[in-house]
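Protein in question passed on here:
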Amino acid sequence: MDTRRDTGLPFMKMHGLGNDFVVLDARELGVLDARAQDMAMTPALAILLGDRHRGIGFDQLAVISAGAGDAHLTFWNSDGSMAGACGNATRCIARYLMDEAGTDTLHLTTQRGDLYAQDAGDGLTSVNMGAPQLDWQDIPLAEEMDTLELPIEGGPVATGMGNPHCTFFVADAEAIPLEQFGPRYEHHPLFPQRTNVQVASVIGADHIRMRVWERGVGVTLASGSSSCAVAVAAARRGLTGRAVRVDLDGGTLMIDWRGDGVWMTGPTMHVASGVLTPAFLAGAT
């Protein structure tokens, strides 16, 4: 008998366009019960799991728990901070839960609020990420200002999608040194909760090329909430329509800002399932 399977903590590894996640299903474990040595999710455990050399590695970690809808999702960044929303992880988990339940629709709850998912056909999954937050206090910003053009060099747009976003429209997103550019604005004093940073080039009325620096993580191959924020910002600026294709480093998402919220559609992948050992988990105590 493999005693690790009896005493360890099960996990799943998933990704959406290379934006990767560790997922813990706590619906039948209480809050990560004795198999995690009676330990609820903590910043220390998130950091340990997020270490790509000594842990599993992820951009975000998601915990599935029982909720008012079909399930409740909680998100953590790899630096141990919490995230209010994670679009690609939501799509990945929605696909997993729909397959599990044999349904093509789903109701999830998150810190962001109620999110609704559906099977979009051809292996794609759609999630309604809710209405964008456009007022300065909702994003939030440090003081009242026009969110369509911030008083920052480059005049970026601020958008809330359950987490804050700062979008720079540039001539060539490929030419921006994102490793230096991103952290400069993640910690800008206008964003008291830090911010995700996007550089985006408008290719056409329904086509955007975007790259992203995620707060608490760094450069990622894709970001669902960032894609939603960029699409909203471009439509508000009159640069595109409300339905756009967003090309990211890891692939393509389709974003549609409708009357009921911002819908995001794209592929998902459940890579593997495994078990975290008690010896590994002990490192976070």
Observations:
- The two ends are 27 Å apart (CA to CA).
